[in-house]
Amino acid sequence: MTRQRSTVLGVELALFAAAVGVLAILPHWLSDFRASEVAYVGVYFIAIIGLNILTGYTGQISLGHGAFMAIGGYTTAILVGHHSMRDLWTIPLAGLVAGAAGLLFGVPALRLSGLYLALATFAIAVSLPAVLKKFDHFTGGTQGIQLFGRPNYTGKGYQNVHVLGQTLTFNNWLYYLTWTIAAVLFLVAWALLGGRAGRTFRAIRDSEIAATSSGVNLPMYKTLAFGISAFYAGVAGSLFALATTFVNPDTFPIVLSLYLLIGAVVSGLGSLWGIALGALFIQYLPFLSSKYISKAPGAPSVAYGVILVLVVVLLPLGAAGLLKRIGVPLTNRLFKRS
Question: What does the alpha-carbon distance between residue 292 and residue 181 come to, in Å, rounded to a whole number?
């Protein structure tokens, strides 16, 4: 490893450690309600990491990641609601079920690329609500599945939770659960994308022909990217179900897939370091648009669209591009001093 790479790695580790420190003490500055909102930011953070692996690193555009979140969310809801499984144990299972669905979809998707792949994934998001309503003996149909108050649901949705000698409100417990999982999955993605798999993904994104000529097993890695990405979405969907304490087909609307792609673009495709800003963007901008923009019909949506266009124009590489623009001169100075 070169000295410059060691310096960059040190800066990244320091940045990650600082972020973990802020997240650890943040609930002390927030109300219980605000803590629950930031927990949702953590859910989107996880989902965007997965989408970035697929779209940002391998170049496969997905407009259906809300469907993979729904698969994860319903896996948790069914196991907790119908089979009395402990909620925490359902989180990795939800990721595995959604990941398996991603692998299955990734095989036929090998024949598609670009807008055709985007339309195929969007078709999943469009059709899934009808499927959920059809198999109502599993999913509860339009009535959904209620988790609130169940004995195997931590805190039952309203009680304090005792963890490591500490007593937390349910919302604070949800906050720490979500962001702990988010931090672990971020490290896993960072290690994966910084190694051989990440280099292979980027080679596929830049040129499939060149990657194939270099000996890359294109079908295997493209399908693998779908599976990993869907796994992250499934974990996010599981946490989303636990946060809402209830799921039905409207819990995971079609527009969720679009929001996730917007979050990935705002974060900066092909980088992990701006994802928190992308998650904040899709969590708070619709609310702020509705609250502070004219109440005329459609005005908040117009404002949201205008802001999104401005962000894309002013930050074409997303938040990660801005961070890189700021960070590169700093690491260069550190490298010169060392």
Answer: 33
Residue 326 within a domain: no
Pairing verdict, β 166-168 and 246-247: unpaired
Say whether pLDDT at 329 is over 70: no
Token pair listed for 317 = 């590489």
Residue 191 CB neighbour total at 10 angstroms: 11
Residue 95 lies in a domain: yes
The CA dihedral of 56, 61, 192, 200, to the nearest 10 degrees, is: -90
pLDDT above 70 for 208: yes
Q: At 336, is the pLDDT very low, low, confident or very high (cuts 50, 70, 90)?
A: low
Strands 161-163, 145-146: pairing is unpaired
pLDDT tens for each residue of 264-307? 999 998 888 889 999 999 998 877 776 666 566 666 777 777 87
Residue 238: C-alpha distances to residues 71, 79, 246, 247, 316 (Å) = 8, 11, 11, 10, 32
User: Helix, strand, or coil here: 212?
Assistant: helix
Position 312 in a domain: no
Q: Give CA–CA dist 287/17, Å, rounded.
A: 30
Q: Which amino acid is at 197?
A: A
Residue 190 in domain: yes
Reported pTM: 0.93
Condensed to tens digits (0 to 9), the pLDDT of residues 233-253 reads 999 999 999 999 999 999 999
Average model confidence (pLDDT) across the chain: 88
**Cβ neighbours for 50, distance < 8 A, ≥ 6 positions apart:** 65, 68, 228, 229, 230, 231, 232, 233, 236
CA distance 199 to 237: 28
CA 278, CA 297: separation in Å to the nearest integer?
26
Would you place residue 316 in the very low, low, confident or very high pLDDT band (cuts 50, 70, 90)?
confident
* Residue ranges making up the domain that contains 25: 3-254
Q: How many folded domains does the chain comprise?
A: 1
End-to-end CA gap in the chain: 15
